[in-house]
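For reproducibility, we list the full input for the zinc ion complex.
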Amino acid sequence: MEERRGIRTPNSANYGAMGQPFEPNYLMPPDSERAPLLPGLSYYPDEAMTSAAMNPAMAPAMISEGAPLSNPAVVTDGPTAPPSDWATIPGYEGMGSDGDKFLPPPQPGPIPDTVPTPANTSWIIPSISEDDARNALMKYANNKCCYGSSPAEEMDFHELRPFNTYRYRLETLTESRTCKWVTVPHTATGQPVDSLFCGIPPQPWDIPIQIPVMFKDEEMKMPVPHTSSLKSCPQCLGICRTVCRECHGTGRVRCWVCNGTGRQFNDRCHRCTGQGTASCTTCNSSRYERCAGCSGRGQILNYIELTVTWKNNIYEFVAEHNSEFPTELFKKVSGEKIYMDEQMLLSPLVNFPAQSINQASQNALQQHHAQFSSTSRMIRQRHSIEWLPLTKVEYMWRRNRYDYFVYGKENEVYTDNYPQKCCCVIM
Ligand SMILES: [Zn+2]
Ligand SMILES: [Zn+2]
Ligand SMILES: [Zn+2]
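The corresponding predicted structure, in tokenized form, follows.
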């Protein structure tokens, strides 16, 4: 499909599929009180309708008896388009209304050089006490509806082995901007329109926008200044009303009791007294309804809508703990924050005692930079290291050996061999 700048064939269910630019004078009758559209006729023939619309003789065939009660006379997907001379507003070229146009951000800087992490090498590696370990297991057993608590009460500790580890987390807040033409009813009648005559539209990335919340997903939409234009509504051609879709402008609809036959059980239909039709309740038999395209105002507003999206992208890495504990369970718990930094663009950590954390920091920053720097603006980054408590508890209960893990600051328990999984069984 050939696609000229700013002009596309209509294919959107919304307003605003980029059809032929609307010319207010085209097809407009000289007097304001124009004749209502006839059923089957369209002022905006689409491909399927062209022949019928151009040849009124063919039109009735399109709404023949038994045809679904739709009204081809009413254009619900009204073709609207920005004025054709607007297709090349600097910074917004080639934009349609059937999808957001991606606006490439200004080039970001490179990742800053590495700077040493503030020295903090006296790591105290605590382990939990037997009391903590017992309480954690009690809580675990009590939270499982069927588990008995005897093992937790009666167990003999064999060994408490620390497998504590670290979690590195990088957060990068990105901002992306897209835009598209939108069409809305012009409800603020009498209000000045912020058009090209009011000034030159700013470049998409030059529009100053306050970041609502740091490190949180948000979205905001706004009109690009000086891109609005007012047009006569293409759906109703400015007369604020359209032919009723229910009755096709006849004021009457098929009786639903007798389905238009006028008969009911070999008798005259009691609802329509044999006429087969009833008054249209949608338009109260007025044959018209308020134009949906302009909310009955007769005018529509066209403008470029800018969508700003903030996304907090997270990279997480948990250092190897050399135990059979399932690492993904750490996602549910918190650790002790031992390091935190926040910058426009961070530099990787280099001298943290656990080398895999330094490596993760480098990988994370490189990955985020590669992933986001060309598609969005990197607003801010922060990274942290958490110490994640993890203790393996081995214990004896009724001459058998069992074990479980206590993890996270919340002292959560993980075990796959709890001995009393059903409290009703006497062991
Ligand atoms: Zn309208
Ligand atoms: Zn009837
Ligand atoms: Zn009606």
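DSSP finds four helices and 17 strands in the chain. Residues 255, 257-258, 262, 269, 271-272, 276 surround zinc ion (ligand 2) (CB under 6 Å). Both points were considered when choosing residues for closer inspection.
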